[in-house]
Amino acid sequence: MDFIKKTFLLLFLFAFINISNSQERIVTGYVTTLKKIALDKAEVKVLSSKVVVLTDTTGYFEVSCSPKDKIKISANGFVSENIRLDENTKELSINLKFKSSEKNVDLAIGYGHIKESDKTLSVTSIKNEDGSKFRSYTNMLDVIIDSSPSINIKNGEIIIRGEGSLLGSNAALILLDGSQITMTQLSAIEPTVVQSVDILKGGSAAIYGTRGANGVVLITTKR
After folding, report:
1. Reported confidence tier of residue 63, pLDDT bands at 50, 70, 90
2. Could you tell me the pTM of the whole model?
3. What are phi and psi of 47, to 5 degrees?
4. How far is Cα of residue 131 from the mean position of the Cα atoms in its chain?
């Protein structure tokens, strides 16, 4: 009799665990671009149920998901991202990569994902999609100098003409895949591994705050 009771208890526990694992839960999150700009009306799709919700003006969303579910985040003018959830996922922070071009800026603004004041048009944008664009260069500094007539080198710093402060350094901010790097680190980058270089200044660089006051050099690798 004890054996039957124990067996029944084990079966009950297994059934309870399976029911608990299959129960849906609410996952919340924020969708941004360039780390700071909230994306409005970005699409958040649960792949198992096909349920779709849109982010609000702050980039916030909440959606019902199953454990170990997948959600897809997408917005016009941005690279979509698939997120695999686990049992512990309760809140997400997703930063969508912007597809740098005037057409995609118009799409992002037209669909209401970003405001006109948030647009991130580059002064210059050069791509190395087929791998041949930077092949003739031996270092990234030459690539950057040739990318725009607004660029020059002074006292070992990248200077973007038309930008600068009266006090302190006038050096442009250099970002490699989103992380700040030095001129020494820049010189060590092999041009053939770089996918694109974007030069930002003025309002385009304002999203980087005081760090971008002298302009920004964005380097994206093929990784």
Report:
1. very high
2. 0.50
3. -70, -30
4. 23
C-alpha pair distances (Å), 152 with each of 35, 199, 205? 28, 12, 18
User: With respect to CATH, is domain 2-96 assigned 2.60.40.1120?
Assistant: yes
**Cα 18 off chain centre by:** 36
Superfamily of domain 122-221: TonB-dependent receptor, plug domain (2.170.130.10)
CA distance 62 to 147: 42
CA distance 97 to 5: 57
Percent of the chain with pLDDT over 70: 76
pLDDT digits (tens, 9 = 90+) for 77-93: 888 999 999 888 899 99
Distinct helix (H) and strand (E) counts, the chain: 4, 15
